[in-house]
Amino acid sequence: MISFSDLKAAREARHHRPITVLDGAETGHASSSTAGSGDPSIAEPSSCACTRAFNLVSNAAFASTSTSASASISTPSSTTPAPPKPTSIDPRDTIYTLPPFLQVRRSEGSGRGIYTTKRIKAGSVLLLSTPRVAVLSTSQLSSTCSGCFLTPQESALKSGQPVQGIKRCQACRATYYCSIACQRNDWKEHKPECQAHKVLRGAWEARHSGENGKLHVGEEKKWVMSEAVRGLGRLIWARKREREVSGKDPDWWAEIEAMESHVETLPVAEVMRFGREIQILRQYLSCADAASGDRPDPADMVDYGFTSSGQLLNLISALTINSFTLSSPSLSPIGLAMSPITALFNHSCRPNAVVVFPNGGGEMNVVAISDIEPGQEILTSYIDVSLPREFRRKELKDRYGFECDCPLCKTGGSELPVGPDVDEGMELLRKEEEGTLDHTDLDTRRRLSSIIIPLTRRLSNSSHPVLALLRLQALVLTPPTSFRSHTLAITSLAQAYSGAQMVYPPGHPTLGMILAEWGKLLAMESPPEWGETNKVEMMRRLEPAVLVLRRAGMMLEMGFGAGGGLVGKEVEGLRRGCEGELQLLRMAQ
Ligand SMILES: C[S@@+](CC[C@H](N)C(=O)[O-])C[C@H]1O[C@@H](n2cnc3c(N)ncnc32)[C@H](O)[C@@H]1O
């Protein structure tokens, strides 16, 4: 994602992620210190507060656009809703606390779903919840606060304060916080995890340190468990904590147990995989009670309220189906979140609502992206809707176990583009998704433009992987280092927007995000050496910048709900700045 702060800073300088649940530790590359922080560690808090939550699957309609193959996409034509299907209300579903206009109903084909009893306008926030569990991906741990899930730049934007460094938990050296308040708020959830990290780190260091006692390069954070294990850990520890106080399961556990799991139809290979994952989870849980240096036996799950291995299998299978990608306010995938109530929304590749995290802080919103009539089902998308039909259908079948019969799937698919340029484009997208694409490498830039030029000649901007590559090109070129790269980044986003309009429903937040990225690039100051110093030239760019930012603001309001979230706030500030500058330039003419 293009960093707003980079662009804004440039202007101000002058004027004012199929979950592998438990495959051991992730190999993310969290560094031990963060830019600007100088790694001023926070002391372990002695007491604490607060709860947080969890989730596993790439449920986000806005998740990253790259996959393992390529295709061109059929254009969605209308937002006409599917005809209503027969539904019934079941007394078992009264465990959920929903706004009065939302109802849980059951249907033959898709089980429980959420329906509205009143007319809803596009841009309305339908449901605001805090995930039961949310955890950062390992690669995000040292750059994003584990309390509010914001980067220091995003926190500063939210608070209106200067950017502060992010500080590491002294005890575990895995988790980072942007403030003492965030660390305190997270402590109740983090406490057992913190001890588990310490034990795992100790064991890893004992095995992988060199003669100087330091870990070999590349081995530093390999002891950190995957986000899914850490999420499950937090969930199970929270349950145990509450059982110890009240002698029974907390009320929210009923919602976890009621989640659809498909466990009875799991293929044998999946059952075996989940079995191995349960072993890793048990080992991880027991580390929380071990002294550093110990190698604890796997936990006895009876201590955690599980009386059979079937219950654990059910839980892991349910989380695979019911979890979401935790995303940043600018839609970058940063981890995993789980909210049983939000997971009640069924899927459509032509959704009328989206799940977003517009302001960080663990706030999870379901937002209507089109007008919805009374009696209609509210549908979100579990996959990236810009992907070709067959990719979408395969993921929905493999991971969620159903054949999608949404209007978009029914209209048929288009042919997959093939060719070395497509393969190379997919390879670049894969690297970007893994976090291994070097944006500063000139060769990356050259490769991207040499692929995009022929691809855009024969394929539409809306097709896969063209749309994703256009956005990647703009990202790689930001902040631009020359007049040429600035122009190319702007052109790429203009093309990406034209393509995205073909594949995303009109109010989808991705459209607002592309406009925001485009508007910010237009609004960016050019350094004098680019030769764009005269007033006419500046006005020529600021005028479209204002228009694009204004449109971005409207689209962000629609996709993220009132205010458009943190990105909406930034875009609004930038637009006002540009309008002010334009006024001055006009007056000076
Ligand atoms: C996150 S859950 C949604 C809530 C679920 N219907 C329930 O009863 O708990 C995902 C599961 O719901 C079902 N589902 C969701 N959307 C569907 C659709 N469009 N068609 C058929 N089944 C669907 C599938 O079984 C899928 O694995």
From TrEMBL:
Region (Disordered): 1-42, 69-93
Signal sequence, start to end: none
Pfam short name (any one): SET
Residue intervals of the SET domain: 100-383
GO MF assignments: zinc ion binding
InterPro entries listed in its UniProt record: H3K4_H4K5_MeTrfase, SET_dom, SET_dom_sf, Znf_MYND
GO cellular component: nucleus
Assigned keywords, A-Z: Metal-binding, Zinc, Zinc-finger
Limits of the MYND-type domain: 145-194
Zinc listed as a keyword: yes
Record's compositionally biased regions (Low complexity): 24-38, 69-80
Gene3D superfamilies, A to Z: 1.10.220.160, 6.10.140.2220, SET domain
PANTHER family, A to Z: EG:BACR7C10.4 PROTEIN (PTHR12197:SF251), HISTONE-LYSINE N-METHYLTRANSFERASE SMYD (PTHR12197)
Protein name: SET domain-containing protein
